[in-house]
Amino acid sequence: MVDWRVVFTPDTPLLEIIVRGSVMYLTLFFLLRVLLKRESGTTGMTDLLVIVLIADAAQNGMASGYTSLADGVLLVAVIIGWAYLLDAVAYRWQPAARLIRPKPLALVRDGRMLHRNMRRELVTEDELYGQLREQGIDSLADVREMRMESDGQFSVITRDADADRP
User: Fold this and answer.
1) Distance CA 101, CA 86 (A)
2) How far does CA 87 lie from the centroid of its chain?
3) What is the spatial distance between Cα 18 and Cα 62, in angstroms, rounded to a whole number?
4) pLDDT value at position 162?
5) pLDDT tens digits along 14-45
């Protein structure tokens, strides 16, 4: 027989759940969005494995061995709440937006690689050329500007784009 009271009654203090969820969310947010910006824009098999491992490791720090459904629901609400709150703060307050959503970073300008910026984001020449090939660009000379966007994706403006403008 199921003891429904145990399932729906929190067995961990609510404030502890909020603090644990907040600390883990903000730590993971900082590590994933700020330090590993380039990695966040793509999702492959390795990335999925990393996400699963991070979730499993973070679960222990967040959960404190809870067994009630209410604890789990509150923890999920705290994590989603932080995601919403950070997006709202970035939308309304420009200084926070610079940290939460870093500006795009130029990697190529007028057909020339910006090696300092590439080193900053750990982008190799091979990776850069691979991104260009994925966008159907054969030569670096055809690139007016290539940027790494805040989500880790690469955007390219070719010299031909200038000719298409009225």
Assistant:
1) 10
2) 12
3) 9
4) 55
5) 888 888 888 877 877 777 666 555 544 555 54
Distance CA 132, CA 149 (A): 15
Rounded-to-integer distance, Cα 130 and Cα 127, Å? 5
| Maximum separation of any 2 CA atoms in the chain, in Å | 74
Closest alpha carbon to 55 in 24, 92, 96: 24
List C-alpha distances in Å: 9 to 22, 68, 73, 98, 127.
Answer: 21, 6, 11, 41, 51
Give 100-149 pLDDT, tens digit per residue. Answer: 777 899 999 999 999 999 998 889 999 999 999 999 999 999 999 999 98
Give pTM, 2 decimals: 0.56
Among the listed residues 89, 92, 100, 94, the one whose alpha carbon sits nearest the alpha carbon of residue 37: 100
